[in-house]
Amino acid sequence: MMKNALLAAVVLFGYANLTAQKPITGFTEKSSAEQLQTETKFDQGLSAENIGQTIKTFSARPHHLGSAGSKEYAELAMNRLKSYGFDARVETYTVLFPTPKTRVLEMTGPVAYKALLKEPALKEDATSGQDGQLPTYNAWSADGDVTAELVFVNYGLPSDYDELAKIGVDVKGKIVIAKYGRSWRGIKPKVAQEHGAVGCIIYSDPKDDGYTQGDVYPKGAFKNEYGVQRGSVMDMPVYPGDPLTPGIGATENAQRLTRQQATNLLKIPVLPISYHDARPLLEALGGEVAPVDWQGTLPITYHIGPGIAKVHLKLEFDWKMVPCHNVIGMVKGSQYPDEWVIRGNHHDAWVNGASDPISGLAALLEEAKSIGELLKTGWKPKRTLVYCGWDGEEPALIGSTEWVEDHAEELKQKTVVYINSDGNERGFLGAGGSHALTTLMDEIAKNVTDPQTNVSVFERAKAASVAGAAAGKAKKDALAKTGLELSALGSGSDYSPFFQHLGIPSLNLGFGGEGDGGEYHSIYDSYDDYRRFKDPTFAYGVALAKTAGHAALRMANADVLPFDFRTLYKTVIKYVADLQAATDNLREATAAENEALKQNAYTLAADPTRPFTAPKPKDEVPYLDFSPLQNALVNLQKSADSLAIVWGKALASGANTAVLNKALYQAEQQLLLEKGLPRRGWYRHSLYAPGFYTGYGVKTMPGIREAIEQYNFKEAQEQLMLDAAAINRFAAYLLAATK
Questions:
Q1: 685 in catalytic set
Q2: pTM of the predicted protein model
């Protein structure tokens, strides 16, 4: 009896807390209660077992862009959406996608070695020996047949070439070998090409994702000696998508560039290899011993080269046009059918892709299934829900980019938000995107329970950040955080065309951090690997479905859309302060570096055995005028504060909300630059872009920041003025929305 009374008290206490909690942002007290009830029913429709079965089904065979598997799975996803009550179709584009005809890598001296260039099938991995697997290669490598000396360039970053210059090593006319890691892979051949290399080899060192990190597959999760990371090396920081149709949809009759006209394609051959194939090449290198922080963990001494070792690299590709199948499913909104909440995840993979991307696609399809159950009860979203499965993400974000370019004008008018996911695994919530949506995601993260710890996914992510923070101020700051902070978006997934090309508010969501391994883009990214090492109970698939699903449902049903541009203001003011500090630090560092170069020049010049060219000192860093940006931020603060007051009144009164909502979701388009970023006009957002030399990694206020990093201070001041104008335009737009 006492036990039952205690249970009743707990239930009543929980109910009192639920009813006492403040309404969801963007909802009235009444509509908030209805929304929470809808979300509860939605959550009840989600099944971890079903997610696991979906992962198994959609990773049962290879399904890269242009393959029979890709078409099969696109049609399967479409049919599932139809069965859930969505109006679903496949939209097909015609795009360029090269696959290998010839792959040869051999060392011709001092010891002959021919690389295997193959991952073996394993009895522990049922799909690892299937027909139809793409071989190990880098898409968008140039054709080439080159023989040259080899030079080890560490991770192949611009800073690594600075180190080579200091010791007098030039890669011009050489083939370079670089480690995967510390940047997107496409940056490595890009920088090698800029320095005159004639070829580039990329390998995975065991230090980064092999036996140094843990037991290797199939015993453990990490990369075995034969594992290879496939992947794109297109210069996507210039523009993503089909390289022959920049800015327009790759429809069958689209006007196309020639390959020679495409500015994002490399001119040198590039090949990824295993650390089994890398070891003989690295062992044969002469030259200086590599610096300590360049050393990997193969049982050799790493040298930089060049030496007597010569390498022959021959690659040839078919450069064919293939179909790209996007799945588009819609549930029409009952009140605002021309306002779209778009949810997407890609369906194509390099091979079987259980983790990347099927774990994310399975969560998306599970959301759609649960929405279908709601539809059967007579429920309808206020705004139109659009659920999408993109093709061709892996080679170059092709499917999403072509769809966005093809439907750009309609999307700019109708899209309220784009919500993206990709691969998913057990661990901690990662959330990035438009900072005006921070409150939305903070409330959701505090409302979704982590399946492993039974605290909220916000609390678990916060605990991880505290544990990972350095002692002192960083740890205190992590402990002091009371709300979720959205990260800035760079690139590497399908939000890029929505966000950085059209200025559509976007989110990128996923869980990770405890499923690390070495299967990425290999034949071992399989269902067998996933169920053992990534998310064995598929519970984090449910966590993703809840997190992304709640975001989609709240944006679809909000009375007043939960955009708070005061958060964006607070974020941008930090970016500007960071730019000022970075400029001051660069000024000091440049002066110190020039002095060090002078001293090093004396040392090198004194050694008659070493060829020597005196390095050129860097230009002095001038003082930039940040006052236009600071004045623009004052205007932004005033308009964001004024709009927040109007927003609150509109929610309370219910008057003019339709007009206000459209103004809210189209606001971020005012931050676009008319001509885009310098030398890459496809990227138009003034605040966010992938870095020109980081690839996936974001550069905030990229026009200014990258000009400073490249010592182009005239351009930095010009970009500063353009960003100030964009922020002033944005502020004026927000102020007009208050009227």
A1: yes
A2: 0.94
